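Let us practice reading a record.
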Amino acid sequence: MSDKFKFLPGSTIDITSEFYKIFEDAGSIQKYKKDEIIYFQDDKADNFYLIRSGRVRIFLISNKGTELTIEILRQGKLFGESSYFSYGSRLTSVSAATDVELISVNLNNLYPYLTKYPELMIQMFHLMSLSIQNLSIQVNSMAFLPSDKKLAQLLIRLGVYFKIDKNDPTYIIDYSHEEIAQLIGSCRVTVTKFLNKFQEDGLVSLGYKKVKIIDEKGLRLFGFS
């Protein structure tokens, strides 16, 4: 495996073409249209996924049919791995937030590559640990913060995935207001109101289905004060 695949602890995730190639060799490509269900809660977990393109929505469904969005994942993220590796059923439901292309894989087929390329295992552990960390932060935010601070903190956290370089002072989040609202457990109208206020304060610049962060320091000061 080339030097490009080497894992750097503490770095942002940079999934290389070689990483995708290994998953493609070990698994199979699956395509879903926007809003199509990939799996439901309590389904048997017999595989997990790497997102090749597009986005998926992770959500919970109550007994009354109410949905709560937990996270929206984009290209280069793993999902379904926690229930798969615990040999259990699915803990959440997942649908396609956009048209999406996934690589479905199971451990038996991936195992020969893990033993041959230990860097792959380290990269997977890093991806999974980030998922756990983000979920913990998300739950804390949704439970204890007002909507405007939830929004500010979410925009900061998303910088990990949308910055081209981790030290970039600005970055663009290509999520719609509806997707952002789902992530903080709010409604689109409320999110739009707060984003417009952030724009007036010079923290962000708004465009069609995108939010450009132009003052990350100011946004962080507001969100975490």
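A brief commentary: The CA atoms of residues 197 and 203 lie 9 Å apart.
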